[in-house]
């Protein structure tokens, strides 16, 4: 027994994936194909995808924004459990990796639920605000360029309905956020945002040691 999070050994990680997740065949295929890419570490962990899918179901989310698509694992995990009337606005700027995403969305039969917008995420979010979409989304997942996280967070809060959820990925940044001597731009941006969210009385929050750290907030 332990009152702290267990260290994640390679053996325990394998057990977690095989026993604690239910990946569809399409998710498994996509994860395996992505593994051969040079920047494969940008893909979320399988248990994180499972967590996100469960959260979509628990919150009965129908309107989702994803900021940072990569090869589409997270959007596919969420789209698979969305009701038919549900939709995801998926924001990214990389045509090559999102082409792989679209291939798997089509294979899995969920492409009609995902609206891919190839443009800078802040621009897409502002367009949604300009279109009057304030407080109309149930869930927002942020997993893109780290220096822009604060901007994504603020616009996501405006677009999120009361009681809605924001998930922010990589909030532990390999442990670097806990070392103030590391002044890397990404680490410092996440460090400052962690402090901001911790003190933000607009939301309830928890930072979970899931994969590279995921912050879950609930808007008041």
For the structure shown, list the relevant keywords:
220 residues, alpha/beta, seven-stranded mixed sheet, 8 helices, globular
Q: Which class best fits the helix and strand makeup?
A: alpha/beta
What separation lies between the terminal Cα atoms? 35 Å
Structural Rg: 17 Å
Uncertain stretches of 5 or more adjacent residues: none
Overall mean pLDDT stands at 96
Q: Order of SSEs, N→C? A: HHHEHEHEHEHEHEE
Helix count, DSSP H or I runs of 4 or more residues: 8
How many β strands by DSSP? 7
Beta content comes to: 15-25%
Q: What is the strand arrangement across the widest sheet? A: 3-2-1-4-5-7-6
Main sheet characteristics: 7 strands, mixed
Percent in helix? 40-55%
Subunit arrangement of the protein = single chain
What characteristic shape results from the CA principal axes? globular
Molecular structure report:
With 220 residues, this protein is an alpha/beta fold. The protein contains 8 helices and 7 strands; from the N terminus they run H-H-H-E-H-E-H-E-H-E-H-E-H-E-E. The chain has a 7-stranded mixed sheet with strand order 3-2-1-4-5-7-6, with helices on both faces. Helix 4 (73-79) links the parallel strand 1 and strand 2. The relative contact order is 0.12.
Q: Would you spell out the secondary-structure blueprint of this structure?
A:
Layout: H1 10-20, H2 25-34, H3 46-59, E1 63-67, H4 73-79, E2 87-92, H5 95-107, E3 114-118, H6 121-130, E4 137-142, H7 149-159, E5 160-169, H8 185-198, E6 203-208, E7 214-219
Parallel strand pairs: 1-2, 1-4, 2-3, 4-5
Antiparallel strand pairs: 5-7, 6-7
Helix pairs in contact: 3-4, 6-7
